[in-house]
């Protein structure tokens, strides 16, 4: 099963669970389970459920804030607001640090070790590299390579996170710009194809004209050669008759007897 399909099934599972929660306490428990699951990294569908509003202005409202943190926040955000959020269990801490790497990978393609260690609260390079390899790359949420010489992680692929509030409009604008650029590029490519086709036809016509002229020249040379050979033979035969007639008309010299 691929990552996208597994994500979709997990999202559907937790959406149904959260939508059918009988009370705020049960809903809070489901949110903890969802944010702890090792294979779930998208929470917008759960966050959009209408019954989550029942958590507002109650003692369980912190679990709604916790869900928002996992949808859009980072480990640094949690540390800054830990006194107003539920205490995270180890699986949630791991998940939030994985999501932090995804957030950084959205912005930077080269992540310096120093920045990662600060954002993830990691104290040494070995611990950082183990985390990136075992908890990010093997988990399939990010792909890249470690450059130990430059002390950085080069991002090649990273799974997307939930859109933050207000981010949808910016993404739509970005996609619209991309679509417009693609359409202009397509028109330019089509024009170049037409130009190439036209040049190809001109080249074919020119080549055909040259070949026809070459054939005409060949035929002319062949005909001229035949005419020349015929004329040469005629001249040769005429010359032989004339020589014979001249020999007959020339007076013969009389030989004197030897005394």
Defining traits:
mainly alpha; 259 residues; 9 helices
Give a quick summary of the entry.
The chain is mainly α and about 260 residues long.
Strand content: 5-15%
Mean pLDDT: 86
Show unreliable segments: none
Number of strand segments: 3
The computed structural class is mainly alpha
Write the element-wise H/E pattern from the N-terminal end onward: HHHHHHEHHEEH
Shape: elongated
Largest sheet: 3 strands, antiparallel
Spatial sequence of strands, sheet with the most strands: 1-3-2
Task: List the total number of helices.
Answer: 9
Radius of gyration of CA atoms, rounded to a whole number? 46 Å
Helix content: 55-70%
Distance between the termini: 135 Å
Describe this structure as you would to a colleague.
With 259 residues, this protein is mostly helical. It is built from 9 helices and 3 strands; from the N terminus they run ααααααβααββα. Strands 1-3-2 form a 3-stranded antiparallel sheet. A hairpin with a 4-residue loop joins β2 and β3. α1 runs antiparallel to α2 and α2 packs parallel to α4. The longest helix is centred in the C-terminal third of the chain and has 83 residues. The protein is elongated. The N and C termini lie far apart (135 Å). The model has no long low-confidence stretch (mean pLDDT 86).
């Amino acid at each position: 099963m691929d990552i996208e399909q597994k994500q979709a099934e997990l999202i559907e599972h937790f959406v149904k669970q959260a939508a059918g929660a009988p009370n705020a306490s049960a809903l809070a428990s489901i949110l903890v389970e969802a944010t702890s699951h090792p294979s779930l990294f998208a929470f917008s569908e759960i966050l959009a459920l209408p019954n989550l509003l029942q958590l507002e202005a109650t003692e369980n409202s912190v679990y709604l804030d916790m869900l928002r943190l996992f949808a859009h926040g980072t480990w640094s955000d949690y540390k800054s607001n830990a006194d107003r959020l539920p205490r995270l269990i180890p699986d949630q801490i791991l998940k939030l640090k994985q999501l932090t790497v995804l957030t950084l990978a959205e912005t930077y393609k080269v992540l310096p070790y120093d920045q990662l260690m600060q954002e993830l609260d990691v104290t040494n390079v070995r611990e950082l590299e183990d985390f990136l390899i075992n908890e990010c790359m093997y988990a399939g949420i990010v792909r890249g390579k470690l450059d130990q010489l430059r002390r950085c992680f080069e991002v090649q692929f990273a799974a997307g996170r939930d859109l933050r509030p207000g981010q949808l409009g910016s993404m739509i604008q970005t996609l619209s710009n991309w679509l417009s650029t693609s359409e202009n590029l397509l028109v330019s490519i089509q024009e170049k194809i037409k130009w190439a086709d036209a040049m190809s036809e001109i080249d074919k016509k020119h080549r055909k004209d040259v070949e026809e002229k070459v054939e005409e020249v060949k035929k002319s040379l062949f005909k001229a050669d035949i005419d020349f050979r015929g004329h040469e033979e005629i001249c040769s035969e005429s010359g032989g008759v004339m020589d014979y007639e001249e020999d007959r008309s020339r007076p013969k010299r009389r030989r004197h007897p030897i005394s």
